[in-house]
Design goal:
189 residues; mainly beta; Lipocalin; 2 domains; globular; disordered N terminus
Length: 189
């Protein structure tokens, strides 16, 4: 709560907003980064999803899910917000992510929080970036003294659909598909 109060005060009390370079400007002097606009042109809107999860210890045959993803501008349009909800087998999984462009990283700084993460949220050290027409996030991490790699690819992006593939495995080894999400744009009502 204290962090939220400090952030709000930083914006309201001092009239400051972050810029892609990490410098500050007075409110009204900034406009959304073209990279945020590019991201929202590609993924913005409400999507119906189906997901396929690979087998694991709790689901030896794997499982499927269905739900929604919403991509929308964050406060002031300076970031993008992803909201995820899927009923996977008997479990409802919810998540929210925030991405903003950082020139120094040449990519999108990403934070992801979801209902399956007992730690709450992940603040990714590496930036998500475009590789051709695919949006890619890759992160190395350590668990129980072992090193692993996580990779997420938003690919096959069209105005009406995209495929989101999540991979994992031991660092330096072959990555296996953990989940594939197929998204279809919902018609505006």
């Amino acid at each position: 709560m204290l962090v939220r109060v400090l952030l709000i005060c930083g914006f309201v009390c001092f009239g400051l907003t972050g810029t892609p370079s990490g410098q500050t400007k007075a409110q009204g002097d900034s406009k959304p980064d073209p990279q945020i606009e590019k991201l929202l042109r590609a993924l913005g809107g409400r999507w119906s999803i189906t997901d396929e999860l690979a087998p694991d210890a709790s689901s030896p045959k794997g499982k499927t899910g269905a739900g929604t993803i919403i991509w929308r501008p964050g406060p002031g349009g300076f970031s993008a917000v992803e909201e995820f909800q899927s009923k996977q087998g008997n479990q409802v999984v919810t998540g929210v992510g925030m991405l903003w462009w950082e020139d120094a990283l040449h990519g999108y700084h990403t934070i992801w929080c979801d209902s399956t993460n007992p730690g709450g949220c992940i603040d990714f050290k590496h930036a998500a970036h475009w590789e051709g027409s695919n949006l890619v996030l890759q992160e190395d991490y350590e668990a129980n003294g072992r090193k692993f790699t996580f990779r997420e690819v938003f690919g096959e992006i069209t105005p009406d659909s995209f495929t989101q593939t999540l991979y994992g495995g031991e660092a330096g080894g072959a990555l296996k598909v953990d989940e594939i999400i197929h998204a279809r744009k919902q018609k505006a009502s």
